[in-house]
Amino acid sequence: MQHLYLHVPFCVRRCSYCDFSIAVRKRVPVQEYVHALLMEAAALPEGDFQTVYFGGGTPSLLPPEAIERLLRELLPRTTHDAPHTIEVTLEANPEDVTPDHAKAWRASGINRVSLGAQSFDDTVLKWMHRSHDAARIGAAVYALRRAGIDNISLDLIFALPDELQRDWERDLDMALELRPTHLSLYGLTVEPRTPLDRWISRGATRVPDDERYAEEYLTAYRRLTTEDYQFYEVSNASLPGFQSRHNSAYWSGKPYRGLGPAAHSFDGTTRRWNLRAWEAYRRAIAAGRSPVESEETLTDEERELERVYLALRTDQGLPLTAPYRPLPPLTAQGWMEVRDGRLKCTPEGWLRLDSIVNEISHDRAAH
Ligand code: SF4
What we know:
The protein is of the alpha/beta class and about 375 residues long. The longest helix is centred in the middle third of the chain and has 17 residues.
């Protein structure tokens, strides 16, 4: 197994749009968490990982010593001898990035940080229940660079409610001024039982229509591509050579192993996922039980549909060989194109990815 994901479930509060599996804690139970993760990892087959990804939750809430210990125990000796050959990503919230933390993370092997910036507008950040202000984002980027971590990704959210009067172009400008190596752009979605869902149910806010979603996505696409960023996946753009190797492994259907509550694993045919809640996961490990909640094995047909969906999410697209072929209506509308002998979505196509995958899969089934 070459790709390892570690889920760190803790957050200091819940963001207004977030439905992830998190545990809101003022004080992170560091010892219990590290112990549980290492217990689960004991069953891991020995492997030379190419990528390690600390995702959450808020992994940057873990003290640097805990991150260092996990990496030391989980990575085989060979990896410590050649740390530059693997990609080790830490998701961090800007307020956790101090010069000391950045230095310690770098010393323990972290060489890529994904910062949850979301916006450079303080009113928007408050509305999102984020715990940082805009000034902290730039300060975090500089602290990381001074510590020797140059591979930095920024997350931004677009398509926010009208009443926030968010200036999306200004946010893009501010992000680009920092010249991160990578940007992830997500449209706001309303997930059940989130604060945002409740605000919408009582009429206190509403999300913008599809038109504005598309307009903001295409604005970002144009702006970033003129600045040398390449959209290598529907929501992810990078400078040349800085694609996320870890996430690219997911999108190309490679096997991966996940540890921690709610973590998923995939061995090439079967997907397993752990108990979502931190307490349930911790209790299962402490009692010597498996933390796996359930698993599914995809049928050949499901696997093929997933392969098509994942391929079309990326700029690799599908090889232009039978059974897939360009459908005239999709190319005429400018949603798909044939480039380098492959069938790919255009940015307009990425906006309607689900229906495109449906159409070309049905077309294949009909032949
Ligand atoms: S910090 Fe991330 S994981 Fe935690 S509540 Fe906010 S969006 Fe969710």
